[in-house]
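Work package 3, deliverable 3.1, input record:
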Amino acid sequence: MINPADVPPVTDDEKLARFVLQRSQIRRRDQTIKPEAFIPHPHTDLSVTRHLNATEFEIWSVGRGVAQTQGRKLYGRADIRAAGCRAQNLSIRADPIAGNPNHANIHGWPTAKQDQKAIALKLAAVAKKFIPNPNQP
Amino acid sequence: MNAATPQRGFSPTADSIAEMRDINRKHLASSAVLGKQTALIELASVWEECQHPNWDGYNALAVQPETLINTYHFVESLPLGYPLPSISAEPDGHMALEWYQNPSWTLSVSVSPESDLYYAALFGANTVRGSEVFHDDVPRIILGLIQRVHAG
């Protein structure tokens, strides 16, 4: 994981994980992610976890922690590149939090719902595959 | 006189024909409901999971009963022959209806508790977006987008 004392800014080629705790956000027929997983409301930012310096095990540990804290089931995650977010005029801010120095926020979302949906569609399109939680039967 | 409700004739034969037509119309309506059953079952399932706050683990708002009712009416109002959407909830408590070919060729329509519809569609590199108010009939622009997704 990233050293909490030395958190670098997010670069374009970084992968960002969005954990999925709601099964209706997954398209079962082709295991892709629905755009709803990328809509930030009621927040103004979208919470993600950077892959930088993290092993797969560590990424999934963070996801399990998020699910456990919320009393939810971790279905899996979707990964997007930082460049894909910036292409939609969104910004990514490193936002280390207790237990997750790799935490970041995607911000700069438009306020109109239809504009948020259009961006979420594009993020889901570049994320493509849903990655199931390996510990989930 | 409206073309959809032709006037009955005045002979026993005309009455029988009208009666048969009524039976067929009821049967057709019943088939249409059955045809939409998969979407309505999914709607009930999403409602079950998302009627309480924080259903997504990121502090999502609960889906309100009004949103459920509006979504039900929307699905019911889809003309016969139109493909059915898959249904999910959105973090702001709206319900989302999706018509999908692949990740780059898809339409998503959000239904709000106030009967507002917010839509966005992706057709390759092009996007279409907008909002409409739902008044019993599915707006023509959305019907056109559904057809475009499934023609692609």
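Residues 12-151 of chain B form one domain.
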